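User: Sequence recovery, please. Input:
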């Protein structure tokens, strides 16, 4: 009984080693590389393609955004100076736990 189990294990190991030998031979005699190669395409560089950053366009966008932000701040400042905006303040409530790392 033990001999039959050992024989079955030996046959399984022989089968696995034969499969591994076939895989190794197929990889060894393969004509191409194991990994596919990247193919380069000729494409004219343009500013519309996302691969090439256009620093001039980026700077123009930044200046446009800064101008818009400055205009918004100017409108807020004008509203505060001429009284369009009314600011109301309230007293801050005292906390009992200010000694525990909270803000005073």
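Assistant: Recovered sequence (104 residues):
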């Amino acid at each position: 009984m033990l001999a039959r189990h050992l024989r079955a294990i030996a046959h399984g190991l022989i089968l696995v080693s034969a499969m591994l030998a076939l895989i190794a031979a197929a990889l060894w005699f393969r004509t191409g590389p194991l990994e596919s190669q990247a193919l380069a395409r000729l494409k004219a560089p343009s500013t519309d393609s996302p691969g090439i950053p256009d620093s001039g366009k980026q700077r123009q966008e930044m200046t446009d955004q800064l101008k818009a932000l400055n205009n918004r701040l100017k409108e807020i400042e004008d509203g505060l100076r001429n009284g369009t905006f009314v600011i109301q303040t309230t007293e801050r409530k005292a906390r009992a736990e200010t000694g525990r790392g909270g803000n005073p």
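The mean pLDDT is 82.
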